[in-house]
Amino acid sequence: MYANSSPIHSAQSGVHDQLAATVAKHAAHVFQKPVSVYNQRAFDDSIAAWRAAGSLPLILDAGCGVGLSTMHLAAQYPDHFVIGIDQSADRVGRNTLWPGGATPLPHNFVRIRADLVDYWRLLLAARIFPARHYLLYPNPWPKIGQLSRRWHGHPVFPDIVALGGILECRSNWRIYVEECASALGQLSGKEVGCEAYLPQQPITPFESKYLASGHQLWRCQADLGTH
What we know:
Elements: H1 19-27, H2 37-52, E1 58-62, H3 68-76, E2 81-86, H4 89-93, E3 109-113, H5 116-125, E4 132-136, H6 157-162, E5 166-171, H7 174-188, E6 195-197, H8 205-212, E7 217-223
Parallel strand pairs: 1-2, 1-4, 2-3, 4-5
Antiparallel strand pairs: 5-7, 6-7
Helix pairs in contact: 1-7, 2-5
């Protein structure tokens, strides 16, 4: 990617004034959207791969795109198994080049095409809880009226929190991370902050592009506990 990414522009200047009410509403109601057949099949296939690898501590790379971050996480945590999930068949199926040809490609990962809304709920129903969980540069949906399209404003967010583990969200839009931290704190009862972030090595194409474009990066981390 070229270093030509434009800064995020939004009429919103701080945490959305409807965030807390939205999170509370979603926490009070069970999200009952039917699970699609293809998502169930993708879930079953990925869990079979995880179990075949020995049911190692699980890492979710949610919205993994072409899966470069999935590979980096697999290399960073060789004693874990990483499942990268993206809704785009084109991105998941793309041949992603692993940097540094002399370094062996990690094998403790799998990439799948699935809708995260279904995948998270299937994990929770199966009582499979990740050790770590990454939301790396999700679409920020920066318009004020788009809160429900951000993960922390979506009805599935309480299920994400219920999965536990260490959850990390990164974005080049500070407000997105501040909102995510606020929603995590609201549901977990823990103090979660937003911090400026400079990676030693970019692990996603967007992370590389935003850094090359001079953007400040932000992240929040929350330890949501184990089951």
